[in-house]
Amino acid sequence: MRIALDAMGGDFAPQATVEGAYFYQKETGARNEIILVGHKNRIETESAKYSHWEKLNISVLHAGESIGMNESPTDALKRKKDSSMLVGIQLHRDGKADAFVSAGNTGAQMAASLLNLGRIKGVSRPAIGSFIPSEKGMVFLIDVGANADCKPANLLQFGIMGSIFVNLIYARADLTVGLLNIGEEEKKGNELALAAHQLMKKECRGFIGNVEGRDILKGKVDIVVCDGFVGNIILKFAESVMSVLSKNFKRNLGSNLFTNLGALLVKPAFSEMRRSYDYQEYGGVPLLGVNGISIICHGSSTGKAILNAIHVADMMGSKKVNDHIAKTLLNRGENG
Predict the structure, then answer these.
(1) Least confident of 21-30, 41-50, 276-285, 291-300
(2) Secondary structure class of 147 (helix, strand, coil)
(3) Which of 65, 201, 297, 320 would be a feasible disulfide site paired with 103, CB 3.0-4.6 Å?
(4) What is the full DSSP assignment across 261-323?
């Protein structure tokens, strides 16, 4: 594959993006080509820090502009035609790259991807998912911000696309799907939840019914479906949990000898818990439903997160996730 990487996207770019590309190529034997899109001089300054760079099948495509995290997506895309994000996505659109990865402005990436790549046939609205840790492993929450307002058919497709992605990329079979609601009972919820429940009960494989907010952390289901407004709130809340636990843990250290000894004993378990909450382990998630591979990373992505995001892009292509989505929707008669 040829994977275009937005070298200027993210809080720690281009250091983190160059580092992630380097170690991905070292780890995989440079079987894919990485195209770093961004300010050439800044990228080359960073790449000079790494040995044998020239042997790792990494090229640089100059783009003189970048889109800031706080910029309006629509305004930025109109004004900055030479931005690393837009140039990278257009490479993918034009067949000069097979996937695109960015830790930049999420709104701009969603808009540029939809505008340039279009939708998979049958998909009404693309969606973003995110992994949330639970008692039983990771739960995939979809949508987490792409669609603030949804129709029942949108939620059904989110469940279908999320299940296909998790099944193919993480080799998890017999997945269960739940609709986020204010109660487990079938007759609870607003008009959207009531209609979506009936639709998903008939047409979504693995659907077990409604789940409540507490069921996410309990791991009651593998896939939790909701609109992007609710999903984004849950995601931001979940991201704060580990920070609160860490601060409370540190606050209680040093009060006496016994708490310090106890802290040493539980430190390995606490470190493992922190790792399970770490977005870097999953790197990035695709904008599911676009007719291409557009991987969205956390704005604070480190080199490790970028490396793992490139892995996701690679697997999205090798596992033909988009083909499976298209085929599933076609079999359901959705030819949109």
Answers:
(1) 276-285
(2) coil
(3) 297
(4) HHHHHHHHHHHHHHHHT-GGGT-EEEEETBSS-EEEE-TT--HHHHHHHHHHHHHHHHTTHHH
